[in-house]
Write a structure and sequence with these properties.
single chain, alpha/beta, nine-stranded mixed β-sheet, 9 strands, binds iron/sulfur cluster
Length: 401
């Protein structure tokens, strides 16, 4: 990968001075990544590659304190995520506390570890909403991608139970070249399970997905077909009076302009990772920025004053072509993680942008998707063993360099 030669060279770089940081919003959306533990092994997981080396998880009291501080800052929505949040034995206590504080709460789960009694307990604790993720609509592909032979059956059972207990439910399917051709079956499964929303989220290539891009990136033809079929279903379902909503998310690898990263860095979203590191975006941990920890700093100070949260606020960090671009208010230069992964410099324009000098990297990936077979046998699964191997390899490379 190329490097444009700016501040980023694997070392924490300078944040803009606070006097150059314009106003910012409130952290309306708080995401609590309670744990990196998970019984599944999805090869597109957005958790960091070195998750197995991350330190101790926050305690119940520490999490409740984060939620309280979040409410004081104006947070209204709280997502419980992971890893698999059901692994935390204090989940009910955390949800009860958050509910009493007035949050709208959402559980983002694989469904593995749920049972009828637990769903009832979550309801009693005041949980508002559940999102269940599936890997595919047929057991073979689902279980292959989840790295578990029992996952599909369990997910089906739990999705039915979630609805039976009166929850609004989102079903989330991460689509890629191994399941996107069955988009019709995926939508039908969503209808059958009476989901309120079906999120057809084409894999975004961060975290583990970036390492597996050769196996996962669909071709342009696959993507166009899936979008066409989704639109047909939308029309048919609406005509039949079915209220289900189908949300189709395209991968930015097939766009010419990047997406507006997290609706603006440090504007609306605040993620707290299992060890208390606070991030403006759940992927940002990969960046060579020193992010603050909720154990060391009050949330208000983190949000308003920390160099990590101020780093990409405003436009004083920008370089060309973004700096003089008349579209910079639309996307703020795109995704900094993507710029970092692909070019080695997080201050570059997101290479998805056709104006970027690195856009060729995206075009090459598209060309690669047309020619490689994308063999599932070559997938790198997200598990502790692989995480430790990757971390060790990186350390060895670092000491050699
Ligand atoms: S993406 Fe898969 S492996 Fe990652 S946390 Fe979710 S269920 Fe677990
Ligand atoms: S040059 Fe930068 S600001 Fe302009 S559209 Fe591309 S990414 Fe966005």
């Amino acid at each position: 990968m190329s490097n444009s030669g700016s501040a980023c060279n694997g070392q924490p770089s300078q944040a803009p001075s606070l006097s150059s940081v314009p106003g910012h919003g409130q952290p309306l959306w708080l995401l609590a990544e309670l744990t990196y533990k998970c019984p599944l092994q999805c090869p597109y997981c957005s958790n960091p590659l070195d998750f197995a080396e991350v330190g101790a998880e926050l305690t119940t009291e520490q999490w409740l304190d984060v939620f309280r501080q979040g409410r004081e800052l104006g947070a209204v929505q709280l997502g419980f995520s992971g890893g698999e949040p059901l692994v935390r034995q204090d989940l009910i206590e955390l949800i009860t506390g958050a509910h009493k504080m007035g949050y709208y709460t959402n559980l983002i789960t694989s469904g593995v570890g749920l049972n009828e009694g637990k769903i009832a307990g979550l309801h009693e604790a005041g949980l508002d909403h559940i999102q269940v993720s599936f890997q595919a609509a047929d057991p073979e592909v689902n279980n292959l991608l989840a790295g578990s032979e029992k996952a599909f059956k369990q997910k089906l059972k739990m999705a039915r139970e979630v609805k039976a207990q009166g929850y609004p439910m989102v079903l989330n399917f991460v689509t890629h070249r191994h399941n996107i051709d069955r988009i019709d079956r995926i939508i039908e499964l969503g209808v059958e399970l009476e989901a309120d929303y079906v999120e057809l989220a084409t894999c975004q290539y961060y975290g583990w997905a970036f390492d597996n891009i050769k196996q996962l990136l669909p071709t342009h033809e696959q993507l166009k077909r899936a979008e066409r079929i989704t639109n047909q279903y939308r029309e048919q379902l609406a005509a039949a009076g079915n209220p289900i909503k189908l949300i189709f998310v395209t991968p930015d690898y097939y766009e010419e302009r990047p997406k507006k990263c997290m609706n603006g860095w440090g504007q609306v979203f605040l993620t707290v990772t299992p060890d208390g590191t606070a991030l403006p975006c759940h992927s940002a941990r990969m960046l060579p920025i020193e992010f603050p920890n909720v154990i060391d700093m009050p949330l208000q100070k983190i949000w308003d004053e920390s160099s990590g949260f101020n780093h990409f606020r405003g436009d004083s960090w920008m370089e060309e072509p973004c700096l003089s671009c008349d579209e910079k208010e639309k996307d703020f230069g795109g995704c900094h993680c993507q710029a970092y992964m692909l070019t080695g410099d997080m201050h570059n324009a997101d290479p998805v942008c056709a104006k970027s000098e690195h856009h060729e990297l995206i075009l090459s990936a598209r060309a690669m998707a047309e020619t490689v077979a994308g063999n599932p046998a070559d997938l790198l699964y997200r598990n502790e063993r692989n995480s430790r191997i990757i971390t060790t390899d990186r350390l060895l490379k670092f000491s050699r360099d």
